[in-house]
């Protein structure tokens, strides 16, 4: 399942949601487990247009967070700006809609939701959607240096896996080089099943 919002350019003309959402909607304003343990935003992956971050949380979560723990969609853009970077696309891999709404983001930044189950290796359809989105963005943004921001809940495993999968399958990077690049960008894959699949699993189309 995936859905577009605020899309721009011929790589997604429709500007509409696609797919249906049967993803988890439970949880209310409960802070995601271990969310506080991770830095809000990583660094740009050297030589790429990718940057990873943990999921920003909408205002209704703030009552459960100390001021220094808060990380909202607005905070995301401020932190990206502090790195002298600019987001051109956000790809949300969380398997829920409860953390924030696309309307919380600037109208000028396209947002793509790709529902991706946690703890499991993403299926071929999910990988294909991710690659298509990245390829379309890069094709339409050759004349600028805007970044593709990718996040799951913590900005680590699903995020790191799909970015590395793209670098391996599309860019031809060696698996260990892609993994090392993600670690250097503070986007450290934790789960061994993701690392093992990147190193020894088949390439995906």
TrEMBL record:
GO terms for molecular function: phosphoprotein phosphatase activity; polynucleotide 5'-phosphatase activity; RNA binding. Residues 60-205 form the Tyrosine-protein phosphatase domain. It is found in: Nucleus. Belongs to the protein-tyrosine phosphatase family. Non-receptor class dual specificity subfamily. Signal peptide: none annotated. Gene3D superfamilies: Protein tyrosine phosphatase superfamily (3.90.190.10). It comes from the Eukaryota. It holds the Pfam family DSPc. The keyword Nucleus applies. This is RNA/RNP complex-1-interacting phosphatase. Monomer. May interact with SFRS7 and SFRS9/SRP30C. One of its GO terms (cellular component) is nucleus. Its main location: nucleus. Residues 1-31 are annotated as: Disordered. Keywords: Hydrolase, Nucleus, Protein phosphatase, RNA-binding.
